[in-house]
Amino acid sequence: KDGIPMVDYSSQEANKKEGKHAETIDKNDFRDFIELSRPHDFDLMLEIKDKEKSALKAVDILSKDERFH
């Protein structure tokens, strides 16, 4: 067994070339992603430009998920 997989997550920048990371996380899209990923466990890396600001938004959403530790 190789361990827990790593997932890179980013929000798409609106009206930009596909794959361009958004400046900040889209909280609704991220919440939907977390709900759709149940029951899978994984490590998560955010690919977002404003770094800590989006990380704090993600932690707020993830704090309600039993997989977050």
Order of helices and strands: EHEH
Mean pLDDT, as a whole number?
91
- Tell me the Rg in angstroms: 12 Å
Percent helix among the residues? 25-40%
Strand content: 5-15%
Low-confidence stretches: none
Distance between the termini: 21 Å
Tally the helices: what do you get? 2
Report the structural category. Answer: alpha+beta
- Please provide the count of β strands: 2
User: How many domains make up the coordinates?
Assistant: 1
* Order of strands, widest sheet: 1-2
> Can you summarize the main beta sheet?
2 strands, parallel
Shape field: globular
Describe this protein with a few key phrases:
69 residues, alpha+beta, two-stranded parallel ribbon, globular
Give a quick precis of the structure.
The chain is α+β, with helices and mostly antiparallel strands and 69 residues long. It has one domain. The protein has helices at 27-36, 52-62, and strands at 6-9, 43-46.
What does this entry look like structurally?
- This protein has one domain (20-69).
- Helix content is 30%, strand content 12%.
- The protein contains 2 helices and 2 strands, in the order βαβα.
- Strands 1-2 form a two-stranded parallel sheet.
- Strand 1, helix 1 (27-36) and strand 2 form a beta-alpha-beta unit.
